[in-house]
Each structure stands twice: as structure tokens, then as C-alpha cells.
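Saturday, quiet lab. Running sequence design on the C-alpha cells for the scaffold JK sent over.
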């Protein structure tokens, strides 16, 4: 029985420490949105993006502090064989709880065609809670967006 009492006392002490130890909440969010089929013109040629591509947005951080953010396209099946996305850019936009955009990190427009466009964004300290969104533009037209809520 003395061993059992020590075991119970040890478990109780560990549980008390676990319950009182300060912790920091870290959040990771990953979301994907399908890219709808669309056509656009580049240099007089009609380009078609078929079904089979997903736009994925990853965000990591704590509270209003974003430590990592990435967005990009992954294509499969027939879509992976297409010419991809020409004249593309990815923007990161931040909106408050009333859905008013207060900051946009505009990406560079890439003239080359790419099947898997991707962009990382620098860490951010947001002034308000709300949403963080990634938006893919092709030939100057927004084609898809994916958002995450930033809450307490």
C-alpha cells in the first residue's frame, strides 16, 4: 500500500501542476476552397482552368498576432496538365468584425504561367479581431478567396 499512496500522491501533484501552469494558446487554421473553372485571355490566346484545383490558406499565430501565413493552389487530375495561371497574384486582406477591410498586403503580379502559384506573407500584428483572407487574382480578376476568423 505505501507504493500506491506514493503513486496517488505523485499523480495528484502532477495534476495540480498541470492545472496551475500558465499556458499560451496557439492557433493553426488550414482551409481550402475549390477554384471554379474559368477562361481568360493572354496575348490573344484563350486559357482555360479546368476543375480540379484547390486554393489553400494556412495561418498560425496567437490572438491577433500572426506568425505564419501561406496561400497557394494545388491542382490534380486534368487540371494538373493545364497551362495553369498566368498574370497571377495572391493578396492577404484583413477585415474587422464588421467585415470592413482595413489592411491589404498586395502580392506581386507574376507574368509567367504557373500551375501551382504560392505566396508566403510576413508576420502580422493585427489591431482588431475579425478575418484574415487570402485572395487569388488571375489577369487582374479575383478568382477565389479563402478566409479564417481571428477571434479571442
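Result came back. Writing it out in full:
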Amino acid at each position: 500500500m505505501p507504493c500506491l499512496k506514493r503513486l496517488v500522491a505523485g499523480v495528484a501533484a502532477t495534476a495540480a501542476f498541470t492545472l496551475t501552469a500558465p499556458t499560451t494558446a496557439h492557433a493553426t487554421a488550414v482551409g481550402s476552397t475549390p477554384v471554379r473553372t474559368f477562361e481568360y485571355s493572354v496575348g490573344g490566346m484563350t486559357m482555360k482552368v479546368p476543375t480540379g484545383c484547390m486554393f489553400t490558406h494556412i495561418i498560425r499565430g496567437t490572438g491577433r498576432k500572426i506568425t505564419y501565413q501561406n496561400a497557394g493552389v494545388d491542382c490534380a487530375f486534368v487540371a494538373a496538365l493545364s497551362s495553369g495561371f498566368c498574370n497571377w497574384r495572391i493578396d492577404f486582406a484583413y477585415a474587422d468584425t464588421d467585415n470592413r477591410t482595413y489592411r491589404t498586403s498586395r502580392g506581386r503580379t507574376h507574368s509567367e504561367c504557373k500551375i501551382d502559384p504560392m505566396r508566403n506573407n510576413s508576420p502580422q500584428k493585427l489591431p482588431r479581431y475579425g478575418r484574415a483572407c487570402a485572395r487569388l487574382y488571375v489577369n487582374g480578376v479575383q478568382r477565389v478567396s479563402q478566409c479564417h476568423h481571428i477571434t479571442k
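Notes for JK: The helical segments are 2-20. DSSP finds one helix and eleven strands in the chain. Ask whether to fix the surface positions before the next round.
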